[in-house]
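Blackboard transcription, Thursday session:
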Amino acid sequence: MAQRLFIYPLYQIGNPQLRIFRPPFSLTLVRPGKEQPQDTVQFRIPMEMTKCDVRNYLEKIYNVPVGAVRTRIQYCTNKKRNHLNQKVKRPDYKVAYVQLAQQQTFEFPDIFTEKDVKSAEGSVEEMQEKFMEDEKQRQKPDLRRGGVTEWFGL
Amino acid sequence: MAATSVGRVLTLCRQFQNAFRISTSLAVQQSALTLTKSQSYLDRLTYPLLSSNWHCHVGQCRPLHTTISRRGLEGFFDIPENWGEATVKSGAPWTAKQLRTKSNEDLHKLWYVLLKEKNMLLTIEQESKRQRIQMPSPERLKKIERSMKRLDTVVKEREDALRLLQTGQERARPGAWRKDIFGRVYWYRFREHALPWYMNKRYKRKRFYTPLFVTPHIRLRLEKHLRAKTRIQNKEREKQTVLQEKFPQIKAQSS
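(Written on the board underneath:)
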């Protein structure tokens, strides 16, 4: 993203609208740390982007109707030290809170749900799984003892 | 594979839909080539970003729905089949040689495809860090970054060639060789200003000339540099003589 370091051309009243072809900015959709309203989507954006940039980006590239955009810069610590006792800076980042227009809602989905994989009948994996389950059953304590461990006699 | 690839090509970004329909069989051939590259964006074809007048290759494609659900924010996530997988297959990154065969329109579209893919991968990476799970196939990010860099290089080459042919200018941004306060000569790149330079107070503070009292410092700096250079040369020569003594059969290295 920082490969193309350029200064934006000077704008004076009457100049044509600045257009950027092939934008080098990438957005990251993040799960909000604090509870956000249903229509708010939280992004991490590069420092160089503005609210107008975010709005145009989402509308043109992702076709998302954007209502309001608010940004803030998150300062990250410079206090941590590495094994050489040098201060290590965690890079700062800009956060954008985008409210969707047209009364739309967005909920951050759960991407890493474990899928239940049923292995094939009669295969080695199935026998192994069955064996492991039997072992676990055998390890469980006797329920009739009411939670008392085997260490106590009787 | 080519047929399905053709269909898949047409699921590129909505705003390029029209342009794409104009270009005919040539683009189709090219796109078939392009699609064998990054498998990852092949997998993203359940894009609900189609308009209903996309008609040609429906039967050969993966089933697509034309309703725009979630209003495009689904572009930030992988297709639901890949959620929860440990690894996701992806193809090789684009090489500069392959990219040079593509037209400007194709490169433009490819840039946006790569950009959206990159956003998706960054989202997954951040979410995996939050959930403290390993991200599936993190090498995809590197591939995308390299492809984008090479695309940039190719476009820059074309722009340079065009500018050289049309105007004869070697550099896009004008500049000049200037001396700074310390007597060092460097390439100063011009900036755009609203005022002429003689009215710009901040610019005048910069001083593109060397005051006279800096001359002794320049001499000392030159001496230091020459001393360092001679030291390296002498060390190298000594090393060679020692080697010659130990191993007389070695031919003396000419450096």
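Lecturer's comment: The CA atoms of residues 59 and 94 of chain B lie 29 Å apart.
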